[in-house]
């Protein structure tokens, strides 16, 4: 099986770029951030404070978290039988995900689920510690980033497209706070793997970023994408 690890900060375009690249190569796309968002949402649903580490850990085995794919190959997250794919994209859930992912026991709880996908399928998996922790032997590791203002603008446009009214300044402030939480946490902090390829997408169109990632995958694996990249 071929495994591609794509890490980077919030708003870098990891999910969209990874999903489109996976489509190009016929790989399974695994959005690990969605799994942490689902646990963050669960803490809110069950009124469990993320400052109460013991309560969070006790909540984990009671949850039914499922990762499913529709006919178009799109990943959907289910929490206790309910499709929460839209709910987990709310900005407040993003902050909950950052907090819950800082708990080592939560990361340990999910690690087998993530590695199991890579053992069964050719995958492109994105997150914040894929190349450093989850798939340390991935065939290719990419650290995807962009200027924080650029990332905030992308997130703002994404929220507007979904009908979620939020001031840009607030989105930017949350993005900076998320960066700080992710890079300074004790458990698997956000950082590039030593052998990761650094890819800055500042100013890129989505098509340009996808093309660069596809080129890197083709160069490393010898696989040809459907658009002819070798």
Structure report:
With 230 residues, this protein is α/β, with parallel strands linked by helices. Helix content is 49%, strand content 16%. The chain is globular.
Question: What's this model, at a glance?
Answer:
The chain is an alpha/beta fold and 230 residues long. The protein is 49% helix and 16% strand.
Identify the notable features of this structure and list them briefly.
9 helices, globular, 230 residues, 5-stranded parallel sheet, 3-stranded antiparallel sheet, 8 strands, alpha/beta, 16% strand, 49% helix
Per-chain topology:
Layout: E1 3-7, H1 14-25, E2 28-31, H2 32-45, H3 53-59, E3 65-69, E4 75-79, E5 82-83, H4 91-100, H5 104-120, E6 123-127, H6 130-134, E7 140-145, H7 148-161, H8 168-184, E8 197-200, H9 206-221
Parallel strand pairs: 1-6, 1-7, 2-6, 7-8
Antiparallel strand pairs: 3-4, 4-5
